[in-house]
Amino acid sequence: MTTRKITITALFAAIATILMYIEFPLPLMPPFLKVDISGAVILIAVVALGLRQGLFVLAIKDLIHLMSTKTGGVGELADFIMLAAMAVTLYLVMKKVSGGKGVFLGSVISIFSLVIVGMLTNRYMLIPFYSKTMMPLEAIISLCQNVNPNITSINGYIVWGVLPFNIIKGLIVSFMTVILHRKIGSVITKNAQ
Fold it and tell me: What is the phi/psi pair of residue 28, to 5°?
């Protein structure tokens, strides 16, 4: 890896880390599910630098955020798993379809990866772990029910919380990736080589 590529990877990691701290909740969503736009930086890193560097950026960002975690590391683990699913999907599509069309198609398909991986990991790994280490499941459901009365169980949390949240987050991150790629993608790719 060239010095220039290392420098650009570090720059992406710094930008993604800062953006991860700028987050906002969505109406009717569980209060601990918040959108941040750092995922767009990860996907642009994949487009410009490759999958390995994109995953490095993601790992660095989540490790730094772990130092100030409020979720016992569960939020950072969730972020890593779900954005890695988006990054891998984008990369695989771009291997088959080149250029802007590949970035667009990969970004759209990566939303499906985010949604599926998000539902499975929340249902079978993240919420069970969080409920054993941080807060009982009943308290999590009660917290969610305060903003959305449809959430009465872990399955309700998946259907009425995780599913719509990840669709919205995926749309935001993918839209920003496509726009950023159109505006600055070629400049970044050219300077990274």
Answer: 65, 10
CATH code assigned at 35: 1.10.1760.20
Residue length, the chain?
193
Q: Residue 8 belongs to what domain range?
A: 3-192
- Find all residues with CB under 8 Å of 119, minimum gap 6, and list them: 158, 162, 163, 166
Widest pairwise Cα distance in the chain: 53
pLDDT in tens, 73-107: 899 999 999 999 999 999 999 999 988 899 999 99
Total structural domains in the chain?
1
Cβ contact 158:115 at 8 Å: no
What are the tokens at 60?
């660095």
- Determine if the pTM surpasses 0.70: yes
Per-residue model confidence as pLDDT tens digits over 146-158: 999 999 999 999 9
Q: Distance between terminal CA atoms of the chain?
A: 9
**Dist. CA 32–CA 151, nearest whole Å:** 14
